[in-house]
Amino acid sequence: RMRAALAPCLAAAAVPSPHLPIALGPRSMSAALRFDGRVVLVTGAGGGLGRAYALAFAERGASVVVNDLGGDSKGHGKSSSAADQVVEEIRAKGGKAVANYDSVEAGEKLVRAALETFGRIDIVINNAGILRDRSFARISDEDWDIIHRVHLKGSFLVTRAAWNHMKNQKFGRIIMTSSAAGIYGNFGQANYSAAKLGLLGLSNTLSVEGRKYNIHSNTIAPTAGSRLTQTIMPQDLVDAFKPEYVAPLVLWLCHERCQENGSLFEVGAGWIGKLRWERSLGSIVREKNHPMTPEAVQDKWEKICDFDNASKPRTIQESVSILNDVLSQIESEEVSTNPTSYTRSTSSGFDPSKYVGQKLPTVVYNYTHLQPILYALGVGMSTKDPDHLKFVFEGSEAFCCLPTFGVIPAQASLWDGGLSSIPGLNIDFTKLLHGEQYLELYKPLPTSGQLTSESTIADILDKGSGALILLDVHTYCGKDLLCYNQFSLFIVGAGGFGGKRTSEKAKVTVNPPNRTPDAVLSDVTTVDQAALYRLSGDWNPLHIDPGFAAFGGFQKPILHGLCSFGFAVRHVLKHFANNDVTRFKAIKVRFVKPVFPGQTLQTEMWKEGNRIHLQTKVKETGEVAIAGSYVDLTSTLDKPSAKEPIKASGLHSDLVFEEIGRRIKEVGNQLVKKVNAIFQWDITKDGETAAQWTIDLKNGSGEVYQGPAQGSADTTFTLSDQDFMEVVLGKINPQKAFFSGKLKVKGNIMLSQKLEMILKDYAKL
């Protein structure tokens, strides 16, 4: 059975397929993951996967408890040799390890071995397992019970013994080992399958309960050659599915940098895939004051099983939230073919093209110095910090607006006279979630005056479980464009109308670099933070009324997402711009989890050129509140306009860039579509930056200009004028220049392949 099931996988492993999502390129350039000071307990570590985990953790500095009962694959017998041999291997390489020979049913003893030997327990890998394969009709009570005692109860007992120690130290990582048999079922393994899927449920609940203590629990379903498979798996498959191809995933999930929690992964042969639940939109099969019948189920069966525009619930709250809407629709007798639609029309009756491009009524915002001050206080500014005075005191010589105040005049478009004014666009604002926000400033905001905002529905997307409205708002002072906002508004339950899922008009989020943050700043919000922030114009009772918050599924009123947004930008400006608001250019954020007033906002920041990647967490729980976000700052250098004449800097490379600009001028539009990237060149002389050039193939019709990128560069190259010329003339291979340190690259290194096409095929260099 195993050979038949895995034969296609072996063939795929032997012959590289263009369809497999496996990167076979250069080695990772991320910093090495170390586990110095961490204590790891691996059950079933005498061979196979467990041995691979133990050796890998020890090699990277962890102290390891190598647990193995020493029995056979069916659970018979006992021996110390398997665990002892692995411990000897670790110690021979200079690592730290101790053997333990207890059954996982004695969970306390296993954890005690870690505490007595190493003084703590940080990571638990529940790997121990046996097999008692029988067809369902032949499974005995003993076959059923022992599988559950070892796999499910054993993992429970070991993890429970470690749990309080992890809670007290505010760190823990747990791995449960499931199986494809548990996920999909497998003939002859009813006992094993039930236990293995039970481990997934256990892990999911631990991920919920442990989150606020920084305890993460994840589940893997590995395919690897081990003692459980070597009797049924031929040697060629054993070689193809080495345990060493599974261990790297386990190490990453257990590292303090990894924030993955409550997830399930399949892994084997060097491939890793993440699984998630998917649910059809379903159908309501009863009517008010009428009995629900099996015939009604039969009539709606095709709709019940239709996975078009399926939803992907991630929590039990998301799972059951639909039932409140079902009850509401039944009571109001508004049942449609789409149970998550909140309008009286059916899903097929909604045509987004009627609304895309529609302009909303112009909104005028009049304000004095009071509003910017009130806003600054609402996002945590305080007179305790002397540098905040210019934001909260109108008499300060440097009195100015925070850049994020730019969302305030724009947000009025969401309410009366805004989206609600579009005929036929029936939005239930109680189901509206603010998903993402983009803000770009073109000029500093005045501290008082009259601003005019013009809004357009840029697009409407069908996300299955809801509709996403992209609202573009341009704000003017007189005829001068001050700022541009894009609100991404998610209407829960309004999806399923058959529309597109993505849009080229959407400002996209960007994940931060995979390394330790360059800076971390924290601020405690006050219990009245939401009450204060709402005075800037967001009057949603969700942020002030406990009853309304409870109706929305929250235990108490939550903080405005745009308030957390303001805190995050303050942190960036303070650390990277010395609170100089003129350096702010743009911000993009995605709101992930709610924040409660009184909690601490902790912003992690990574600097990549003029772009500051960020994510904001709730310090008390470790949950990410804002993700995939960035702030773009202007350079401290004066930026010449792309339209200004090029000024000679006396470098040989100047001539080359001028010629590149001339040669690609006629095909700029074509290149923008093909490349969609900005390349910046920092040319040095005598060790100092002597010139900067930008090849912009993302904006407008494409152009080459002298100076830093007027927008964040996707890739930045740094090399001397002399080395640049030798690369252009073919005297130095670019790859050799890179590996020798002559050429330095920051950002998306893979885009250099497109650059080569530009320079050879179009610039004819």
TrEMBL record:
The keyword Oxidoreductase appears for this protein: yes
Compartment(s): Peroxisome
PROSITE patterns: ADH_SHORT
SMART domains for the chain: PKS_KR
SUPFAM superfamilies: NAD(P)-binding Rossmann-fold domains, SCP-like, Thioesterase/thiol ester dehydrase-isomerase
Cellular component terms (Gene Ontology): peroxisome
UniProt GO MF annotations: 3-hydroxyacyl-CoA dehydratase activity; isomerase activity; oxidoreductase activity
Major localization listed first in the record, in broad terms: other
Protein keywords: Fatty acid metabolism, Isomerase, Lipid metabolism, Lyase, NAD, Oxidoreductase, Peroxisome
Keyword Lipid metabolism: yes
Example GO BP: fatty acid metabolic process
Chain ranges passing through the membrane: none
Pathway annotation: Lipid metabolism; fatty acid beta-oxidation
Ketoreductase domain mapped to chain residues: 38-212
UniProt record similarity statement: Belongs to the short-chain dehydrogenases/reductases (SDR) family.
Name assigned to this protein: Peroxisomal multifunctional enzyme type 2
